[in-house]
Write a structure and sequence with these properties.
74% of the residues lie in helices and 0% in strands. By secondary structure, it is mainly α. It folds into 2 domains: 248 residues, MFS general substrate transporter like domains (Growth Hormone, Chain: A), CATH 1.20.1250.20; 217 residues, Growth Hormone, Chain: A, CATH 1.20.1250.20. Helix 7 runs antiparallel to helix 8 and helix 13 runs parallel beside helix 16. The radius of gyration is 23 Å and the shape is globular. The two termini are 25 Å apart. This is Major facilitator superfamily (MFS) profile domain-containing protein. One of its GO terms (biological process) is xenobiotic transport. Belongs to the major facilitator superfamily. Its main location: membrane.
């Protein structure tokens, strides 16, 4: 099951990024389809359907630019809404404590269950996409996400709120999981799709950071239930706007429909149980295996998971810190997260500058000279961003006190968003470029499992840690851990080739 993969489409040059393959950005659905095509070829079955030629108008990459740009909006904005919903109520946890007569730790559990849903959702998205295509995954899953978000706003007790939020997270996650595949369907990320890919990747980070901002503003004048209504007020109109105009972008779904219209016989496909087994392998079994056997996946996933965990911990720690030191209410505490938004945007700009001035230049030189560019150049962004985390955490730790103006610790959050964005973008592109297509989808799934796992757990101990250790030492403890993790991009920049060549999976060698 875990042997090295086989190239399934055109042979890839050593210096060519895996994101430039026909299927674009890796996702579990397309990876499974490639595996199924491999089995057909090995068993001597009819070849899988393909485009009529490079200029086939049915190919989403040949659609008009404005059409492709429009198809980019639904996955990006749906991802924004889904992640906005996750922390949006956290600045109003005191209201939940009072209404349901529960502790703060219990009031935070709905955030945990919603985030756990993000980890479980891809296992739902992959089989649905394989059977029906991406369009219908968006149509069905996002509609039910809105329904269970409404149910969360109507929850009569904390147990119901936790359950409804878990289901909403599971149903919202397909937008995150399938979205990467949609971007890869319609754009060549090496030619003209870089901005679209960046827009999609930034959306969930902006949603997570803006959640407390909007939640704090609305819960200041209304109850916590209005935070759920706000998600509906944002997500509902977007759903009604996009759904009628969305097109199917998934290659097998397009070709299957066209083959039926033309009367072309379809190649036999494995039974549902066999396809489901492969889907679970890509989305769960192989990612878990990589998390315990692949040093590259382990280290980079741990680093991105820690940054994501701290972000979710801040959903509780920042209201507590600014509330105790400066008397901030939920509205003012939520606005502090605007600094994180600014940092995320700054990090994306810096990553783009590094990509264009360093990586793209080396990439073009490699093509011209017939050489391969070291994929470790992808880690330069993480090396820069790694300084942002400890700087932010230590800055916050020892300036968040009543004797220092509140703007000083608030500004520190900018560097956290900056470092988080650079670390994630660098780690994601490095994993995608290091592993061949089949394993790349599982490597990113492994990263997501650990990332959302940390995001679910960290808020649960935030207040205890900040209460027992104090703001200074609690934030410093996180700062010391971030200093230790700073070594990750530097170590793999220097020794990445060593680990790639000894990987049990199919990776870029040399």
């Amino acid at each position: 099951m875990f042997k090295k993969g086989v190239e399934t489409e055109k042979p890839r040059e050593p210096y060519e990024s895996s994101t430039s393959s026909e299927n674009g950005m890796p996702d579990a659905v397309a990876a499974v389809d490639i595996e199924l095509q491999e089995e057909e070829q090995q068993q001597g079955l009819p070849a899988a359907l393909d485009w009529d030629g490079p200029d086939d108008p049915a190919n989403p990459r040949n659609w008009p630019f404005l059409d492709r740009a429009f198809q980019t909006l639904p996955p990006a904005l749906f991802s924004f809404v889904v992640t906005l919903a996750s922390p949006i109520y956290t600045t109003a946890t005191q209201q939940i404590q009072q209404e349901f007569n529960v502790s703060f730790e219990t009031a935070v559990v709905p955030l945990t269950t919603h985030t756990i849903g993000f980890a479980l959702g891809p296992m739902l998205a992959a089989p649905l996409s394989e059977m029906f295509g991406r369009k219908y995954v968006y149509i069905s899953s996002f509609a039910f996400f809105l329904i269970f978000t409404m149910a969360s706003g109507l929850a009569p007790n904390i147990a119901a709120l936790c359950v409804f939020r878990l289901i909403a997270g599971c149903l919202g996650a397909p937008a995150l999981a399938v979205g990467a595949g949609t971007i890869g369907d319609v754009w060549d990320t090496h030619k003209d799709g870089g901005l679209a890919a960046m827009f999609f990747i930034m959306s969930p980070f902006l949603g997570s950071s803006l959640g407390p901002v909007f939640g704090g503003l609305i819960s200041y004048h209304r109850t916590w239930r209005w935070t759920m209504w706000l998600v509906l007020l944002v997500g509902g109109p977007l759903y009604l706007l996009f759904i009628p105009f969305m097109k199917e972008t998934y290659k097998p779904a397009i070709l299957k429909k066209r083959a039926i219209q033309r009367g072309t016989p379809l190649p036999p496909r494995p039974k549902g149980s066999e396809a489901l087994k492969k889907i679970l392998t890509v989305t769960l079994v192989r990612p878990v295996h990589m998390l315990v056997t692949e040093p590259i996946v382990i280290a980079l996933s741990l680093y991105t998971a820690f940054t994501f965990g701290v972000l979710f911990l801040f959903f509780a720690a920042i209201p507590y810190s600014f509330g105790t030191q400066y008397g901030f209410d939920r509205r003012e505490s939520g606005l502090v997260f605007c600094a994180s938004v600014f940092g995320i945007l700054l990090g994306a700009v810096v990553f783009g500058a590094i990509d264009r001035t360093i990586y793209k230049k080396k990439y073009e030189e490699a093509i011209a000279n017939g050489r391969k560019v070291p994929v470790e150049l992808r880690l330069i962004g993480a090396m820069v961003g790694s300084f942002g985390l400890p700087l932010s955490l230590f800055w916050f730790a020892w300036t968040c006190k009543a004797s220092v103006h509140w703007i000083v610790p608030a500004l520190s959050v900018i560097f956290f968003g900056f470092g988080m964005m650079l670390i994630f973008l660098s780690a994601a592109t490095y994993l995608v470029d290091t592993y061949q297509y089949l394993a790349a989808a599982s490597a990113m799934a492994a990263n997501g499992l650990l990332r959302y796992g940390f995001g679910a757990v960290f808020p649960l101990f935030a207040i205890q840690m900040y209460t027992n250790l104090g703001i200074g030492w609690a934030s410093s403890l996180l700062g010391f851990i971030s200093v230790t993790l700073m070594a990750v991009p530097f170590v793999f920049y220097r020794f990445g080739k060593y680990f790639r060549e000894r990987s049990s999976y199919d990776t870029i060698k040399g």
